[in-house]
Amino acid sequence: MKTQFQWFLWLALVFLIACEEEVELKLKSSVPKVFIEGFIRTDSLYQRITVKKTNNFHESNNYPGINDAIVILSDETGRTDTLQNIENGVFRTRKVFEGIPNRYYFLKIIAENTTYEAKAFLPGVVTFDTIIYTYVNNTSIVREPGYYLTSIGQEPLGLNYYRILCYKNDSLFDGIGDYFITDDILVEGNQIVFTLPFKFDKGDTAKVELWNIDQPTFYYYVSLIKQLFGGGPFAPPADNVKGNISNGALGYFGGCGVYSQSVIIE
Amino acid sequence: MNLTRKYIFLFLWCVLGFNLVYSQSQEYTISGYVRDSSSGEALIGATVFIKETQKGALTNDYGFFSIKVPHEKFTLVVKYLGYVTYAQTFQVKENVKVIIELQQEAVSTEEVVITDIRADENIKSVEMSVQKIDIQTIKTMPAFFGEVDVLRSIQLLPGVVFAGDGNTGFYVRGGGADQNLVLLDEAVVYNASHLLGFFSVFNSDAIKDVTLYKGGMPAQYGGRLSAVLDIKMNEGNNKKYVVKGGIGTIASRLTVEGPIVKEKGSFILSGRRTYADLFLKLSKNPRINQNKLFFYDFNAKANYEINEKNRVFISGYFGKDVFDFGNEFGFLWGNSTLTSRWNHQFNTKLFMNNSVIFSDFKYQFNIKQTTENVQYTSGATNLSLKTDLDFFWNDKLHLKFGQQAFYHSFLRADLKPTGQSNITPYKLPIRHGYEQALYISNDHKISTKINMKYGLRYSFFADIGPTTIYTFANPRDNRPIDTTVIQFGKILKSYHGLEPRWSLNYGINEQSSIKTSYARTRQYLNLVSNAASSLPTDIWIPASSEVKPQIADQIAAGYFRNFMNNQIESSLELYYKKLQNQIEFQPDANLFLNPQLEKQLAFGKGWSYGLELFIKKNSGKWTGWVGYTLSWTYRQMPIINHNEPYFAKNDRRHDCNVVLSYDYSARWNFSLTWIFASGNSISFPTGKYELDGHTILRYDKLYNDRMPDYHRMDLSITFKNKPGKKFESSWNLSVYNLYARKNTWAFRFEKDPNDESRTRVIKIYLFSIIPSITFNFRF
Q: How far is the alpha carbon of A94 from chain B, nearest alpha carbon, in Å?
């Protein structure tokens, strides 16, 4: 009786956990729309912009590029470059076009007889002092035993927004849960000691990249992450990721001041 | 079976009572209380009338009534569903006070011919769009994890749309989950759910009466647009000590009640706790066995009759939900309420109640990591003073009037380090509100066929100090450029308005009637949520210069018909509701720690109309009901679909419930419920693209799709053990989702991890079949 009861209780508990399965769901289709993605970076000599078209949900993930589009990048001082198509949907500046901080950049694209325009601000570079690594052993819900990085720096005064990226042996942690976006409301002007939630092993080269972004770009990432974490009744109601490109194009044109440091885990 | 014995207890108190100055005619008054004979509990809404004239009144929330009687002989009749009817002949020469005790009906195995029971109440009553569920009915419904749930039972009624698995927010006639006023002994319950909505905070052992108003709200209720769920706690058996409880597979509960002074005062204490996390401790995996997942709640009440004119009560609720993940992340929330009341009977006709009520809701999360230890708290509190007067003028007029004053506090966000941390403490200023309402309402029996209830409510709300106002350069900034401190009592913005209410009953004949009603309601507090389901992290936003109060107007009409000598009740109701100043979030709104939250809101309107069909069988071995609702609910917002009307997320076209209960014998009962709800309105993607290497969904028109239909059957079997001299017990087996339908809880659209070139749709479903066993006892 006792064992039967226990078995029964386990059965009851097992059914508590939510379950998942893949299903076929008919979804409406749509007229393809242009989507544009591009970030001006202070650490790039050449800038890249992507111009492609959307697909229906059940179609392939290879999005058709608009390879005959005219893509023009310029900045406040009048510097201009007409980008050239280097691979499917990807355009790169013909000449060196450095991301010079603290100025506005303008994008103009003519694709399939429609003009799309956007404007982005490239903030200055914010640095941090050091990265140190420590071995963490204790078992934890979120952390497996391994090496974890701590970055130390001084947060500058003023309204700032950041994105932090981590690379392991030149490979970016690029999962949905690896996004790290923050404003500075909680740490304004403080000495920051920040432990990053990415695990490394002995012999790895770890790189931390700090992006300084502006307020609209911060909110773009907020809406992007919200969509990526969507699904489930506790998710926000569905909506499109906020963009800043005219004429109904999807996507985003932004700027980031980039600073990075590497360390080898010995 | 002791079926035919009828016990009539009558305490006649001949007191030189007051004769009211204006009562010139040779009429006297009988006033007093109607109570349960075995426990002394006051019976709310019992019908007291004179057989010869068919005139009378209903007992109020404290079981009090007052009716005029002729000076010749008459028969006083008292009826209440589930109790043996009382009838006694009197002749009085002065005002008389009585206490009438009704005996509970014994369970019968034969078909009982119904002439005595107050089964025609749905025809005669002037109220419409109201559903009273007595707690005995709730206890025989199928349980979920062995727990019988008040909120779950409410969702089986027509007009109450099923909100979804694991969600005890409920939607009434197109209204949102925050538009329902949930009261426990007059105290506002901010969040009525435990365990992310799987259980409600109401322990059915502590509850006496549950009333749901879907429309035609009487003037004494206000503050929320759509519905009022008025829940009253038991007072406690004032004749003898009783211990009752249940032990189940997931949760257990215990109640102790008894007299303080026999028949003068009593108390009741009720507690409940789940222990799902004890099973987690059985796991060897340290990532699982260190988690805590439980809730508990506690109800307490005491009352004492100081003298025949005065009685005092004190009642409270305290509950908490705890989620703890290995001491690193913790999440807890809970409500607490405290109500203290004083009943005073001025004379045979005028009854008063004064209440001082405190209500609080708080949630908190804790992070404990080596370099980051923080605690975040948010919540809402109110202190209120209520005065309600009941004036039983004569058999044609019953006047109710009173006031309600509330002082609200809103703690939007409080973030502070609790140990090693980088962050500076951050606290948004506490906001305060003052809400005042006055109401007057009259139950007027105009003629033998026409009965009216009309009333007016006046409500006022002010956004007041003490608080601090920040000024920002841009709506998105989180750093203010200016700060102003507001003193206590200074009004920043106020709103007020009138809320007329009326309902009318036209009795066609003994079996049928037509009713109509109209109500305007105003709501000054808004619960804003950034999720499809209600969460404890939802934020309360009071009306202010940036947020106008919500307003609703509802008209309803219905035809009520009984069959087979009141054994079968039926009704058909139609309603139309218009909503103003409805709230939605801007799509990229950031709620967390946002000092400019109100700037992230958008406002629009809504409307809803529908039809509700209800058929109920009240007596005999087979009892139960069928309810069907056909409804449309629309919203219109400038930020959604370019201001085109769209189907609100709680729009469900069809909602059908079948509840069936079979008393096989005195010891066996079988109960079945079946729920069907057509899919609610939702937004599905119409395409996809890529950003930052991730698949991004594209939406063209929002709320243009439907979730799949939901249906489910639950079963409950109760077996009563042979009652001992003092000890009674029963076993209950409940099965949730009998045919194990995998009802979709949500969809997720993602890149296929096994095939990078395609995306797939994942269906998330919550429960397959769940059996549970509970052992209930009473001594």
A: 23
Nearest by CB to B763, from A21, A193, A226: name it: A21
Q: Is the pLDDT of residue B7 over 50?
A: no
Residue entry with tokens 């230890």:
B373
Spatial separation of the C-alpha atoms in residues A227 and A239, rounded to whole Å: 8
The beta-strand segments (E) located in B586-724 are: 601-617, 622-636, 646-647, 654-663, 668-677, 681-682, 687-691, 694-698, 705-706, 710-720
Percent of chain B clearing pLDDT 90 (strictly above): 45
**Residue B23: DSSP 8-state:** -
**Which of B533, B690, B700 is facing A234, going by the closest CB pair?**
B533
In chain B, residues with a C-beta closer than 8 Å to the C-beta of A141 are 287, 290, 325-326, 328-329
Most confident of B157-171, B374-388, B589-603: B374-388
B196 — phi, psi (to 5°)? 55, 35
Of B371, B691, B760, the CB nearest to A241: B691
> CA dihedral defined by B124, B127, B131, B137, rounded to 10 degrees?
-40
Separation of CA A121 from chain center: 17
Query: Which among B424, B533, B705 has the least Cβ separation from residue A233?
Result: B533
Average pLDDT over residues B701-705: 91
One DSSP character per residue, A27-65 reads: -------EEEEEEEETT-SS-EEEEEE-B-TTS-S-PPB
Residues of B in contact with A26 (CB under 8 A): none
pLDDT-derived band at A239 (thresholds 50, 70, 90) equals: confident
Q: What are the phi and psi torsion angles at A178 (to 5°)?
A: -95, 5
For residue B310, what pLDDT band results from cuts at 50, 70 and 90?
Answer: very high
- DSSP β-ladder status, B397-417 and B373-391: antiparallel
The interface predicted TM-score (ipTM) is 0.89
CA quadruple B663, B665, B667, B668: dihedral sign: negative
CB contact under 8 A, A20 and B762: yes
The yes-or-no verdict on residue A116 having pLDDT over 60 is: yes
Using one digit for the tens of pLDDT, what is the confidence trace for A28-65? 999 999 999 999 999 999 999 999 999 999 999 999 99
Distance CA B324, CA B345 (A): 50
Taking contacts as CB-CB distances below 8 angstroms, the residues of chain B near A193 are 371, 422
Shortest Cα distance, chain B CAs vs residue A201, angstroms: 20
| Gap between the Cα atoms of B295 and B273, Å rounded | 6
| Interatomic CA distance for residues B141 and B123, integer angstroms | 25
